[in-house]
Task: inverse folding
């Protein structure tokens, strides 16, 4: 549906995300975000039931992008740069993966959002959110950045701090909208909030039909800061951030040979997932103390994964991975992670496969036989590892509260905090090329 150009618009800021741009634009136009989403073609109505798809932040299809560009007075490339799919060349999990058969009411394909991205809440750096002193940013704030939605981005290199993910006052994940159905932003009908205010709804008995929002300014309210990132963590963050940049290095070193960034991030995700499932078996690979804080815990897993790929040969990597995989006994290939690895055959480098296969395929049964058994058992909640109802778990990162790892059963209304930890634990989805032709049973069972 065509939309007229808005009377006023805004130039997107560097690395700005679509939800953040919508907040600044609605603030400038003095409309609700819901109204701006309708005026830019992201929804078919601006009534309260209208919810733009969560996948809009990942990718806009050609028709929607054209309508949005016209309405917001942006060039097609400016519109494309607001979406996470701008990272897809180097970060395969940001590529739009379409759900098989599922289509919207107007016939468009549905984009799956289960991937290594934070789509239901965002990390942030308070000082980067603050205005840079320009008139426009003084009024509407700085950018909610796209890169804060990527798990490998855990620290801000400008201020050299870990990224936050909770509001310092209400302690809820930022931009998380609880309730049924995932939403692009919470409180899209609220015209009173500044783009940099916390949008969490506070339950109250006094105003049950118009509950107030937290409203904390996230750029100026100090949170309790733990220790800053260690030097090794900043070096790691700089390496990963450089690989994400379009003009970054064309290859990354892994097990003694250069590989493309896309393959590198695929490997890091598979290893991160394995490490988080078996933690603390891999804790010796981390130089700094791990913590319950979300960004710090993520930094620890990433550091351990990169330490493995930084080895010069498969033999050296096997020495590091053996205690990790043997912590599961001889069950390596029977775990969710192991089965998924055997079935998906992820597009990782041959040297890493030579590292992992002997550790997973401990018994002399053939690979084909194990794939058959893994396929027969299928995936789903019933084969997820069972966590104890109380007490510390052997897979629990040091200092990470047990509630972070309990109850991993999927559900649309689970707290974002659990979703965010699950994003580290869940075995990676199949690669992009195979997503589109994937049997429906496999594509949908893991949700
Ligand atoms: Zn910053
Ligand atoms: Zn808050």
Result:
């Amino acid at each position: 549906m065509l939309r007229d150009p808005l009377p006023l618009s805004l130039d997107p800021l560097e690395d700005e995300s679509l939800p953040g741009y919508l907040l600044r634009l609605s603030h400038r136009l003095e409309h609700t975000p819901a109204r701006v989403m309708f005026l830019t073609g992201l929804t078919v109505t601006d009534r309260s039931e209208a919810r733009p798809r969560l996948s809009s932040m990942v990718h806009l299809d050609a028709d929607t992008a054209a309508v949005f560009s016209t309405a917001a007075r942006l060039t097609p490339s400016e519109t494309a740069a607001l979406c996470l799919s701008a990272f897809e060349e180097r970060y395969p999990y940001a590529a739009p993966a379409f759900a098989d058969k599922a289509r919207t009411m107007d016939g468009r394909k549905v984009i799956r959002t289960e991937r290594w991205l934070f789509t239901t809440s965002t990390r942030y750096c308070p000082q980067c959110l603050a205005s840079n002193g320009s008139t426009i940013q003084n009024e509407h704030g700085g950018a909610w950045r796209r890169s804060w939605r990527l798990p490998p981005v855990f620290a801000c290199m400008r201020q050299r701090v870990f990224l936050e993910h909770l509001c310092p006052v209400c302690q809820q994940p930022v931009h998380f909208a609880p309730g049924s159905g995932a939403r692009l932003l919470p409180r899209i009908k609220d015209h009173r909030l500044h783009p940099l205010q916390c949008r969490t709804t506070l339950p109250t008995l006094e105003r049950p039909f118009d509950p107030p929002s937290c409203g904390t300014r996230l750029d100026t309210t100090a949170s309790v800061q733990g220790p800053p990132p260690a030097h090794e963590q900043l070096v790691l963050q700089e390496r990963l951030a450089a690989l994400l940049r379009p003009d970054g290095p064309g290859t990354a070193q892994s097990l003694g040979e250069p590989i493309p960034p896309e393959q590198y991030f695929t490997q890091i995700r598979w290893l991160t997932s394995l490490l988080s499932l078996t933690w603390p078996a891999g804790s010796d690979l981390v130089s700094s103390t791990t913590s319950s804080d979300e960004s710090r815990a993520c930094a620890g897993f990433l550091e351990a994964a990169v330490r493995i790929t930084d080895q010069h040969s498969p033999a050296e990597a096997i020495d590091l991975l053996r205690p990790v995989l043997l912590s599961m006994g001889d069950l390596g290939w029977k775990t969710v992670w192991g089965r998924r690895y055997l079935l998906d055959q992820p597009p990782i480098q041959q040297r890493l496969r030579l590292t992992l296969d002997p550790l997973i395929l401990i018994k002399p049964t053939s690979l084909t036989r194990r794939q058959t058994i893994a396929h027969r058992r299928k995936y789903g909640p019933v084969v997820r590892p069972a966590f104890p109802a109380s007490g510390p778990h052997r897979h629990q990162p040091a200092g990470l509260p047990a509630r972070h790892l309990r109850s991993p059963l999927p559900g649309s209304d689970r707290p974002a905090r659990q979703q965010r930890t699950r994003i580290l634990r869940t075995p990676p989805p199949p690669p992009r090329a195979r997503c589109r032709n994937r049997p429906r049973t496999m594509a949908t069972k893991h949700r």
Strands lie at 97-103, 109-112, 155-156, 161-162, 252-254, 257-259. The first strand starts at residue 97 and ends at 103.
